[in-house]
Amino acid sequence: MAPSVLLLLLGLLSSSSSSSSSSLPPPRTSFSLHSAERRLVFSLPDVHNYSTLLLGNNGSTLYVGARDAVLSLDVSQHDVITLKKKVEWSPSSKEITDCHNKGKNRTVDCPNFIQVLQQINSSHLYVCGSFAFSPHDAFIDTETFSIAQSHGAKSRCPFNPFQRNSAITIGGELFTATTTDFRGVKPQISRHFSKDGRPDISQDTSVNLLEEPTFVSSSLDPEDGKLYFFFSEVGKEFSFIDELRIARVAQVCKDDVGGEGLYRRSGRPSPKLLCSASFQKSFPSTSCRTCSPSGQQRAALPQTLCSTASSPPSAVFSLLLFRSSAPQSAVCVFKLQDFRIVFSGSYKSFDMESHQWSLQQGKHPYLGKCGQDRDSDSILAEVKKTFLTSDSVKPAGDAPIFVSSEQSYSRVAAMTTKAANGKEYTILFLLSESGFLHKVALLDQGPRVIEEIQLFTQHQLIKNIVLSSPKGVLYVGTSEGVTAVPVAKCSVYRSCIQCVLARDPFCGWSRTRKLCTAPDSSADNMIQILDNGNVEEECDGQTEASANTEINVNLNKVVTLDCLKPSNLATLIWTSPRFKVLPKKLFIQSAEGSLIFHASTASYGTYRCEAEEGGHKQVVKSYYVQQIGSPHPRSPPPEVDHMPDIKEESDDESIMTEVPMVPVMTPVGDPEDNLTQNKGAESTVTKDKAKTNNEEPTIKNTSHGGGLDSTRDAQSWKEQLNAPTKSYYSELVVVSLLLAACILILMLAGLHVWRERQKNSKLDDLSSPEDGGKVNKCMESVPALSCAEDAGPELRV
């Protein structure tokens, strides 16, 4: 009996999903678009839309179907992708003009987009392209890489280059699921290049077996000789006001020989079932995005996003979209055995007159079965209206593996790997619409997003992924090029703790080589903890402590100590032997993790940046800050339990001036000689200080192996911290009062001068030459209509 096959369903679920499903944690490590550590990009300036990918049989060649071209790439080297051969295949000018006359855009719709790329036999590739909205197919010789023959290919790939389809080759026979008309509204599943004298067959289109489907992928179950096509369509069996798109799986008999008479070229209608992933009372609509079998060899389908095993596959991963008012991304697991049970069960029958579905009465052995003989017309007529299973397939555990509300995934690939403990783990690679590739490990404690890698920034209409399990490389095709991403790069973890905390089944710490690498056959020499083990105990003595980075800086200069988080889940903590807790008044920790402070005698010393993750601590960076011009580098003071705490200062604190500490020396000999010597020393220090004030801080790595005695050094630190400081508060008050008195006297003097000038100016205005200097007293009173002194003789009547 073939091993059970798991179907992984990923989609958007409503916010009312069951709380039993775990939430997807944030990625532990992130790599930006400009980071060259985790990706390798190939592109040609004259080629676009690398839409279809196919791995060659040798695993060293990647065939790419692009716009108007097919490429053969050499992917044998892990650090470079080179072009081996290229064949151009584009429509003529007349064909492009005809496409444009049909209402299509010349540059967007009318080129030849390769949509099917399959290995038809050991020497030839089969390709099918949209070819200016008139599908054509061709055979390409893999040795000469030239087109052997080309002709029309209706019903083998869609007219519309942006309409999804699915194709698979088995034993030289081609099975396709696509639309067959210009408008893209007539879907059909067909078999071409049939062997053993069997005719090419297609499903009868006289009945609507498929309702507006979006084909995604297909896979073979070799034990039962059946093909499974994964797609989404409108569910007509539900009586809803709005159309409901749901996820479907259709079963096709690989060796179907058709019917008799009128049905000779009509295959048996494919029974289909519903992938049910609703939770609680919600019933979100589902649309299939991709289905991917998992195994150990190459991918057999351009639309299958993961490897397919040569033996019965161990797992199939399918990507579906569940749409509701509050969408969420979720992953579900389905068992292939459950598919077999449902397809062998009861069916619903469609009434052509009432357009209603009803449960089929009785058991019919021909429903859901594959036969070697031709079916009679009566059987085919019955199957035409009885092709929908009455039961649906539910996910394992009736709940998703995980749920994510931040990402909308569009492609998925999967593989299994054996860890150092001999246990196999499943690894998922999920491509989001925003351009990030997430690597998710399904561990016993739940899913873990080990890393995210940014592959593109602009929205990509065309994208595809193919996983090569033997080479351990994932290939992503977009409109811009082909990106190769190794499934793991353990060398990015440079310490034992970081290597183990990654919880990556692909990576472990080698005790003998002292580096992070892939697990080898000897588990005793490998440290790999995928559960909640003691990381510090296992990694004790495996990583050498990094040397201190020495920073020389002048007084009152701003010091910035950089520290990068080793992972997104880590928290940075700065410590120093001088302080139990770094005072917020003196130190600022930026959002990026850097420590910023002013250089002073109280802030010189050793600082360590520690990363804490999951209760585990590790020193990421260590600095030793000292003053420029120090005659001897002082060793870091030991941690002291009774270091004085620096209290937070109040708003009305006294203004203090810090005085540099000068060693006190006992005078010997004549006091005048001592005074002269001291003055000379002071002059020398002043010159040296003036010389070094313009110097920039210098940084040097040192291990601080030597230095002063630790006891004397600690005592020196204590004396500096406890040394009294001189206050100039009283002098400042006196100077302020004298300044205020001077300003007041100047203001009074200025006011007096101004008043005298105003008085003299008024006296000049009141006297005139005719009056002989007589003062006009009317001008000194309040203005009125008339004045008695200026009036003439009284007029009498």
From TrEMBL:
Transmembrane segments in this chain: where? 732-754
Residues forming the Sema domain are: 28-487
What GO molecular-function term can you cite, just one?
chemorepellent activity
Biased composition range(s): Basic and acidic residues = 685-698
Q: Where is this region: Disordered?
A: 663-712
Signal peptide as annotated in the record: 1-18
Where is it found, in Gene Ontology cellular component terms?
plasma membrane
- Which keywords has UniProt assigned to this entry? Disulfide bond, Glycoprotein, Membrane, Signal, Transmembrane, Transmembrane helix
Q: Which PROSITE patterns match?
A: SEMA
Instruction: List locations, semicolon-separated.
Output: Membrane
Mainly localized where? membrane
Pfam families for the chain: PSI, Sema
Coiled-coil stretches: none
Skewed-composition ranges (Polar residues): 674-684
Which example biological process does GO assign this protein?
A: axon guidance
What family does this belong to? Belongs to the semaphorin family.
Q: What name goes with this protein? A: Semaphorin-4B-like
Organism expressing this protein natively: Scomber scombrus (Atlantic mackerel)
Q: What taxonomic ancestry is recorded?
A: Eukaryota, Metazoa, Chordata, Craniata, Vertebrata
